[in-house]
Amino acid sequence: MDEKEAELIKRCQQGDQTAMREIFEQHHRRVYRIAYGVVRRREDALDVVQEVFIKLFRSLKGFKGKSTLSTYLYRLTLNAAIDHCRRSKKTPGVSLEATGDIRAVEAEEGRPDQLAARKELEAIMKWAIDQLPREQRSALLLREIEELSYAEIAETMGCSIGTVMSRLHYGRKRLLELLKDHLKGEGNR
């Protein structure tokens, strides 16, 4: 943890509302993306974001700085989103639409046939990702979309780096299996 982050946390621990607002402004977009990637509904993701920041600000008094604030926050987010799905009896999944890394098809320029092909590919990817076990989906979301390091993912998911590597390996392998027929079709076009 760097000095600036440590000072910000210290100010929050002392009840400084401005520091709390700064933390929220720095992290709320990524928290929303992770939450939405799991719960897949805007309203539910916003509920998770609210729950996460309430938990964060309540727990900061005991925050020892053993991990970075962002890693701690992303772990809170992942756990809160999964808990939200359990309470709602919904199956969590990863939505590429909410990541901010994949633009909406309507916003892209191109011929109508290209737009249709992109939209079809996005639907197939969403379907394939939804077929993965939750741990593999979460690991892929944190690595490929949020671009966290293996160590950050391990800390966020509460597992070893080896487990993260395994989840990513088997998740990617399963995605390739699910997508192989579609990928073969692309080569024939």
Give a structural overview.
The structure is a single chain. The chain has 189 residues and is an all-alpha fold. It has eight helices and no strands. The protein has helices at 3-13, 17-39, 42-59, 69-88, 112-130, 134-145, 150-157, 161-187. The protein is elongated and about 60 Å long.
Brief descriptors of the model:
single chain, mainly alpha
- Tell me the major beta sheet: none
Using the alpha-carbon principal axes, give the shape: elongated
Into which percentage range does the β-strand content fall?
A: under 5%
Which regions are unreliable across 5 or more consecutive residues at pLDDT < 50?
90-108
Summarize the amount of helix as a percent range: over 70%
Q: For the residues shown, what is the average pLDDT? A: 82
